[in-house]
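User:
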Amino acid sequence: MTHMARQRRWNRFLDPRSGKALVVPIDHGLTLGPIEGIGSPRDILDWLAPDVLTGVILHKGMAERLGGVPGCGMMLHLNGSMSIDANPDVKVMLTSVDAAVRLGADAVSVQVNFNRECASHNLRMLGAVVDDAHALGLPVLAMVYDKLDNAGPNPLALRHFMRAAVELGVDALKILPPANLDLMPELIYGVQEHTPVLFAGGPLTGDDALLQLANAVVAAGAGGLCVGRNLFQRAEPRRTMEVLLACLRQTARAELPCAPRALVSDAAAG
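Assistant: Predicted structure:
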């Protein structure tokens, strides 16, 4: 009975013209500290543009300090870890779905970094969050990362982790783009048709790489973008949002140097 409620809430994260998401995560402060662009609530409010982006992802304390971010979808991030932790890939629950509801969140998110030490922990945590959120009609976004090999993400392993999240009932996924953007359709095959897949932007990178990613998302039929540092650490965050939204709407392809078949740089894929 909660499927309709979840769909209505998820629609708050979608651009009505393109049907795709342009979501900005600003949950980095817990992990990395007050990095450039999100050093204070005032810094965030200086660039936050709810009329251009479709949603934000943030922790509960920042949600209160930003007044609930009116004008776009608000997704509460439920777990995390600090970069100084002995095993930062083990994300622990920091708040609850009930707290998200009390704050007026439209959805919740959980990050699961998969390695051999924390795979079972991730599954138990994600399964419990899905049960709690769906009981109250909230959609769940799973941020799924492959941490098995220091050499970089393995597409086959990542597809396994994505499938595990789908098996547990998540409503949407956020993943890193493949180094070769030509592999994007293969990566989301069998998933995007029922579970929207959003691609992360990663650390700050060049304009061309970011625009190539946006156009590749459109070409592959993916669910949208979930870009943080590549927005709020740029000189003109609002302009970047406008250009990315135009790319998602397919109105910017002719005027921007967006070659969708180019490789994403190491920085963008990291």
